[in-house]
Amino acid sequence: MAKSFDNRDGWIWIDGKFVPWREATMHVITQGLHYASSVFEGERAYNGKIFKSIEHTDRLFQSAKIVGINIPYTKDEINNSKNQLLEKMNLKNCYVRPIVWRGSNQMGISTANADIHVAIAVWDDWASYFKIEDRIEGLKLITSPWKRPSPETAPSQAKASGPYLICTMSKEFAEQKGYHDALMLDYRNYVAEGTGANIFFIKDNNIYTPIADCFLNGITRKTVIEMLKKQGFNLTEKHILPDEVKNYDEAFLTGTAAEITPIKSIDNVSFATGEKTLSYKFMNDFTDLVNSSI
Ligand code: PMP
What we know:
- This protein has 7 helices and 16 strands.
- By secondary structure, the protein is α+β, with helices and mostly antiparallel strands.
- Helix 5 links the parallel strand 8 and strand 9.
- It binds 4'-deoxy-4'-aminopyridoxal-5'-phosphate (PMP).
């Protein structure tokens, strides 16, 4: 059984101070909890350095701006605190989770007098978000009945807690049926993404990925697009219909937690996986890239 997240040794940075892990608590009457009034980040450190730390902090501030939260720290303060926490926790390869939320000053939907809190936690038991044997073998996905909403309905470019309810419902749907993850379509029925990662397809050495116009344009997605273009691959961002999925040879997920993870099947459509495939090569190329970025 994995260690519970509220009962660990170590430190959490919260509102400017390092607090013993078990004491980093908040009151149950908290606006962020009741109304999902919060934004967060997911980052990874490799060899003691957070990959794209500045970009993640920029996105945290951008997410906060989109949902109307004013973070009471500078970007430099957040960046420095992340690094200090890594040192204090003595972790070199770990997951990094900054979160910003509206507190207990005010209950109800109004945000006028809300107090804003910021915390950062790091942990090292997401070394592989999906089990390593599943990453090599490839993941089994099932299409979720839940859809990514229109950008007029949810703040799609904010990494905001609210929309993640759709992801948790989709993931639960998939896991209860024995799948690793769900494929989410969008409100127009185009292929969108996984529950916590973006999706790519391969056909005849050409790479395709859905246009990020109603879901997070992931930092890993952007990194992978750049990496593949540098390798000379043709990369097309386009709307993909669920019916077209069967035409692709391979598929893979990208995300900070998932890194690059090959997909073995979506519903009853199978894809090539294994050492001879491009997605397997890209998975290893990505590992080299993140480990070599000093
Ligand atoms: N989509 C969703 C729903 C996610 O949770 C994530 C992970 N943050 C991503 C895409 C990929 O984003 P990134 O590569 O920036 O981690």
